[in-house]
């Protein structure tokens, strides 16, 4: 009973809105939001090392041998680099998750922003689903449609004007 109680109490839902220009993560239960450009700074020598993500990545732009990358900016797809995208997402989720040893892995509702010609491909949807799982989510729902309210997120009821992507 105690383990179930902890799971129910500490289980979090995180809302991730993602576009090439902005990555926003919201904890609707706590009312906390972070929103930054989805960039990552990686030093290439002597071996690849992450120096920062989001606004922190930009601070390293003048450093030699550092590559600033946006893994969600590509002319044909929202995923240009799966591995870096997963690292960026993990860093953002880590920033907003409760700092507790008992905190369970969050449920993530991944909201793909925009409406590409022909819609998002099954490959993109699967990439974002797998990316969130690799970043620490226990369950992932990929959503396309209007922005979700905190009440919709907490009750997991989605408006009929959008759709869950599978």
Fold and architecture overview:
By secondary structure, the chain is an alpha+beta fold. It is 28% helix and 27% strand. It contains five helices and nine strands; from the N terminus they run αβββββαβαβαβαβ. The strands form two sheets. A six-stranded mixed beta sheet has the order 3-2-1-7-8-9, covered by helices on one side. Strands 5-4-6 form a three-stranded antiparallel beta sheet. α3 crosses α4.
Key traits:
globular, 9 strands, 166 residues, three-stranded antiparallel beta sheet, six-stranded mixed beta sheet, alpha+beta
SSE blueprint and pairings:
Blueprint: H1 2-10, E1 13-18, E2 23-27, E3 32-36, E4 40-43, E5 49-53, H2 55-58, E6 66-69, H3 82-96, E7 107-112, H4 122-134, E8 139-144, H5 150-155, E9 163-165
Parallel strand pairs: 1-7, 7-8
Antiparallel strand pairs: 1-2, 2-3, 4-5, 4-6, 8-9
Helix pairs in contact: 3-4
Distance between the termini: 34 Å
Q: What composes the largest sheet?
A: 6 strands, mixed
What integer value in Å does the Rg equal? 16 Å
Order of secondary-structure elements: HEEEEEHEHEHEHE
Give the DSSP E fraction (strand runs of 2 or more residues): 25-35%
Number of helices in the DSSP assignment? 5
Structural class: alpha+beta
Helix content: 25-40%
Uncertain residue segments: 4-9
Mean pLDDT: 89
- DSSP strand tally: 9
Which descriptor suits the 3D outline? globular
For the biggest β-sheet, the strand order reads 3-2-1-7-8-9
